[in-house]
Write a structure and sequence with these properties.
The complex is a heterodimer of chains A (368) and B (267).
Chain A: E1 8-17, E2 20-30, E3 35-39, H1 46-54, E4 61-66, E5 69-70, E6 81-84, H2 96-106, H3 111-124, H4 140-152, E7 158-162, H5 170-187, E8 190-195, H6 198-204, E9 207-212, E10 215-220, H7 222-227, H8 232-237, E11 242-252, E12 255-260, E13 266-270, E14 280-285, E15 291-292, E16 300-309, E17 314-320, E18 325-330, E19 342-346, E20 352-356
Parallel strand pairs in A: 3-8, 3-9, 6-7, 7-8
Antiparallel strand pairs in A: 1-2, 1-4, 4-5, 9-10, 11-12, 11-14, 12-13, 14-20, 15-19, 16-17, 16-19, 17-18
Chain B: H1 5-25, H2 27-31, H3 48-55, H4 57-88, H5 93-108, H6 111-125, H7 131-155, H8 159-167, H9 172-200, H10 204-209, H11 217-227, H12 232-266
The chains are: A alpha+beta (368), B mainly alpha (267).
């Protein structure tokens, strides 16, 4: 039975709606069985890219391949895809069983096989015995699991998911996230997943592509993107970052030194490509990398401005002499900082990353 | 009871409603009168004129002709109206407005003009005085109701459902048959009922196009009433009214089914 998962390739794909470019020429290769998430703000082009993969949108240029076959001009029904939508898009006039069996029926599968495979799919999403229910009788989470089963039961070459958890509440979202992850590990379907929720992306993906303005800003494994963002946008969009701007003093062998603007200090750390001496750049370090220097040790002077309890974590807002905020995140402990205290901040050099300033700085993304 | 503005509004509203409805309802008791002339309220109740109606082959022929014309007009207008509604969903908004105006224009153009035009067209074609000719004429007036009703239903169909079906491998025809069509059944039913009723009680076009072979109930009524004011006309009117009412109730029930279904989907 198991139809194979196939690779999915975008080659020089571009698309504009009227005068507005939705996708600038971009290429992306997804290996068979890989789980790739496109993460980005609304309007970044991620859904357009997914719709091009599905065949609902025709690209202006470029080619699309599924496995060995070029499918750029094939209609959706001939692409062997499974789709999951944010709105579930279950057929309201059919039972759960008929919804899941729809794709099999279209493919002319024998009734007995449909029964067996739909039952297996129901078991897969832990909805055994729900086959005869009407869609209206299901909760949102159950509906989305039916939608998942409907897309997966046909064993598509590629699975496409468009913000499938967007309509669920937070608790349920976490649960279904883990379920999708489990299903992917178990069945190894090539998956292209679109979301604006970074947590979803981090939990499920083999690789994450961060999109902005119709471009993929950076693509890589979750820990790679988190540890080594290519620019300020990626750093601010994936996880939370402290961002200190400055001028590059010198750079060599993948490392750079930055004179921080408004601070009488230099920050050293590994650097991203494109960081050259004399250029404007930013030093990026994560809140969990910030520590307080012990007495007599060097560090960046700051004052504790705010302490926020997040439950298992503590978020501390520290005001630098320049007036900029730096956040620290740590486990609550005996030496919890008190507001108004003067401290010295330090971090390990390898936890810093010097990145070029991108054309559209986005530093507003930092919250506790 | 205090005479507040709300009471006044209720009274005024009731008077208007009574003015609208009572003359129509007056034919019902009149049809059960025993006397040979129409009188309200009847002195003696009787089914005499119903018997007269049923025993007169001309009236029966008219009733049957009306039914055949209305059924045919309904089928034709549901077919073309649904196709039109489907097509209108696929054109740009501006073109859609213009096209919809054209589709609806038979309701706005004076029917007498349409009738004369139809008369000129149908006579040389030999459609004049035939069931088909009448049905085609009525279709002009009935199609707008189908287009509007089906259009409303179509806009209620989740476009992602259609995409989901396409993605699952269904051909356009299969998507229509298994997803779109079942979801617009209420609109089809509503449109069909309106089409039937529109044709069933249509007079003006019918007078122009009717012949000996195809004389509908309203035309027969009109002809009869010009000659003699017999209570049989009240019977015929009551039958028209009853059939219209039954269909109206059926449409309402069907629509309620839809909204209940939609509520359930939203909840």
């Amino acid at each position: 039975m198991a139809a194979e998962a196939r690779s999915l390739g975008f080659h020089g794909i571009a698309k504009a709606f009227g005068d507005v470019p939705a996708l600038r020429p971009l290429s992306l290769d997804i290996a068979a069985g890989e789980f790739v998430t496109l993460l980005g703000p609304s309007g970044s082009g991620k859904t357009t890219l997914l719709n091009i993969a599905a065949g609902f949108v025709v690209p202006d240029s470029g080619t699309l391949s599924i496995g060995e076959a070029e499918v750029t001009s094939l209609p959706p029904r001939k692409r062997d895809i499974g789709m999951v939508f944010q709105s579930y898009a279950l057929f309201p006039h059919m039972t759960v069983f008929d919804n899941i069996g729809y794709g099999l029926r279209v493919r002319g599968v024998a009734n007995a096989d449909i029964k067996r495979r739909v039952d297996a799919a129901l078991a897969m999403v832990q909805l055994e015995g729900y086959g005869r229910r009407r869609i209206q009788q299901l909760s949102g989470g159950q509906q989305q699991r039916v939608a998942l089963a409907r897309a997966m039961v046909i064993e598509p070459a590629v699975l496409l998911m468009d913000e499938p958890l967007g309509a669920l509440d937070r608790q349920l979202r976490k649960q279904v996230q883990l379920e999708i992850r489990r299903l992917h590990r178990e069945f190894g379907r090539t998956t292209l997943y679109v979301t604006h929720d970074q947590e979803e992306a981090l939990v499920m993906s083999d690789r994450i592509g961060i999109m902005r303005n119709g471009r993929i800003e950076q693509i890589g494994a979750p820990h790679d993107l988190y540890r080594r963002p290519a620019n300020v946008f990626v750093a601010a969009f994936l996880g939370e970052s402290n961002i200190l701007r400055g001028t590059v003093v010198d750079s060599a062998a993948g490392s750079a030194r930055l004179a921080a603007t408004g601070l009488d200090t230099e920050i050293t750390g590994p650097c991203a490509p494109g960081v050259v001496p004399g250029s404007e750049a930013a030093a990026i370090f994560r809140p969990e990398a910030v520590t307080f220097a012990g007495p007599g040790q060097p560090g960046l002077p700051a004052r504790v401005a705010e302490v926020v309890y997040l439950g298992e974590l503590l978020a501390v807002r520290l005001k630098l002499r320049s007036g900029q905020d730096v956040w620290r995140r740590c486990f609550p402990g005996a030496d919890d900082p008190t507001e108004g205290r003067d401290v010295h901040l330090s971090w390990r050099t390898e936890d810093v990353r010097i990145v070029p300033l991108d054309d559209q700085p986005n530093e507003g993304g930092l919250t506790c | 009871m205090r005479l507040g503005p709300a009471t006044l509004a209720n009274v005024a509203g009731s008077v208007v409603l009574a003015f609208l409805v009572l003359p129509i309802l007056a034919v019902v008791p009149a049809s059960f009168n025993h006397a040979s002339f129409i009188r309200l309220p009847p002195d003696t109740w009787s089914l005499r004129w119903y018997q007269a109606f049923l025993n007169d082959p001309e009236w029966l022929r008219a009733l049957i002709a009306s039914t055949r014309v209305a059924l045919l007009a309904m089928v034709i207008s549901v077919l073309f109206g649904t196709l039109a509604a489907l097509g209108l969903e696929r054109v740009p908004a501006r073109a859609r407005r213009a096209l919809l105006a054209i589709v609806i224009s038979p309701l706005i153009v004076p029917v007498i003009m349409t009738s004369i035009a139809l008369y000129y067209v149908m006579r040389p074609l030999g459609l004049h005085g035939t069931i088909l000719g009448l049905a085609l004429g009525h279709t002009l007036l009935a199609v707008p109701f189908v287009v509007v009703n089906v259009g409303i239903s179509l806009r209620g169909v989740d476009p992602y459902c259609v995409r989901a079906a396409e993605g699952l491998g269904a051909s356009p025809w299969r998507v229509f048959r298994t997803v779109t069509l079942p979801l617009i059944v209420p609109g089809l039913a509503g449109g069909a009922a309106f089409a039937f009723v529109t044709s069933f009680d249509e007079v003006v076009i019918s007078i122009f196009l009717a012949g000996v072979q195809a004389k509908t109930l309203p035309v027969k009524l009109w002809e009869t009433i010009r000659v003699e004011f017999t209570p049989v006309t009240a019977v015929a009117s009551t039958i028209l009214l009853a059939i219209t009412l039954v269909l109206f109730v059926m449409v309402k029930t069907a629509m309620r089914g839809v909204s209940a279904q939609e509520r359930a989907r939203g909840g």
